[in-house]
Amino acid sequence: MAFQAEKQLVLDFYAALDRPQASEAALGQYLTPDVLWRGYHPFNEIRDLGQLASTVWDPIKTSLTSLQRRMDIFFAGRNSLTDADDGSTWVVSMGHLMGLFDQPFLGIRPTRRVAMLPYCEFLRVEGGRITEVAFYFDLPSLMDQAGQNPFPPQTGAQLIQPGPQGHGGLLLDPQPAEAGEATLASINAMITDLGQWQSGLPLEEELARTWHSDMLWWGPTGIGSTFTIERYAKQHSGPFRAAFADRAKTNHVCRLAEGHFGGFFGWPNFTARHVGGFMGLPGSDTTLEFRVIDLYRREGDKLAENWIFIDMLHVLKQQGMDVLARLETL
Q1: Cβ within 8 Å of residue 306, ≥6 positions away
Q2: What values do phi and psi take at 97, rounded to 5?
């Protein structure tokens, strides 16, 4: 299936939403009144369009003036985890909301310079309206751009996440079905291997089964980005696995692929107990939730790039560290 009507609906929605006018009219035109909207801390779940406009979109547009949406990845498909005949299509968008950071946002002080808020969004389309949204965003990246980075030095490199190598991530035209099926198969194989966490399988050997040796892992602020299997294992995956125990099985809300791109999100994706060392924090007996979006680019029969959004502020808040409440001291 081409999913062209659903893609166009989302593009039209973005064109209306990104205008400087108040957001509620655009939301009411394209979203159902009972939409389920999920966003990172401090927004969480919202089911009221007026609240969504007044607490999320109007403040974003007030803070980031002359707003531009700069998409790097755009694709659509059926949710592989649900009944194929449920009548819905999911559209995925990833990139940056760029503007002049002219007013404070959630306590982050403005710079009056250009700023870029990394985002990734899954939108469920049914009957010509958007019925469900997962809007995940790297708020700590905006803090870092304002000189208020709340984290100790990252294990990876802190960068503005670029789009895919080759710049072919905007799938505005129909894609061959077999390409999406191959991408989904690669993602599922990687998830199956991830389920062997702490089983004794050597980490780099595990990764090499589904990843290219020169993989690119574009991580969130607080963790950072890494390049090649060897550095990813040393700079993120190995330390992360060592810092957590009792990891739950993967629990995704949606998983799909089109062409050479695919991804998933969960609410939460998994839970785990922090045994110590992550973000320089001590361990505890608290089981933590991880809200994550992962997007992938496949090359051949393996994965080549991965863009990751993790609700780091939510993770830290569960450990007793309210970053937004501490912004005045940063």
Answers
A1: 215, 216, 217, 218, 294, 295, 296, 297
A2: -95, 115
Residue 102's pLDDT is: 98
Question: Is pLDDT larger for residue 101 or for residue 200?
Answer: 101
Rounded CA separation 256/86 (Å): 14
CATH number of the domain bearing residue 115:
3.10.450.50
Q: How confident is the model at residue 282 (pLDDT cuts 50, 70, 90)?
A: confident
Q: Same domain for 106 and 237? A: no
**Shared-domain flag, residues 47 and 138:** yes
Tokens matching residue 129: 């309206």
301 burial type by CB count under 10 A (0-12 exposed, 13-18 middle, 19+ buried): exposed
What is d(CA 188, CA 179) in angstroms, rounded to the nearest whole number? 14
Residue 114 CB: number of other CB atoms within 10 A?
13
Same domain? 196 vs 139: no
- Is 150 part of a structural domain of the chain? no
Band of residue 200 on the pLDDT scale cut at 50, 70, 90:
low
pTM of whole model > 0.90? yes
State how far the Cα of 296 lies from the Cα of 42, in Å rounded to an integer: 27
Q: How many C-beta atoms lie closer than 10 Å to residue 202's C-beta?
A: 9
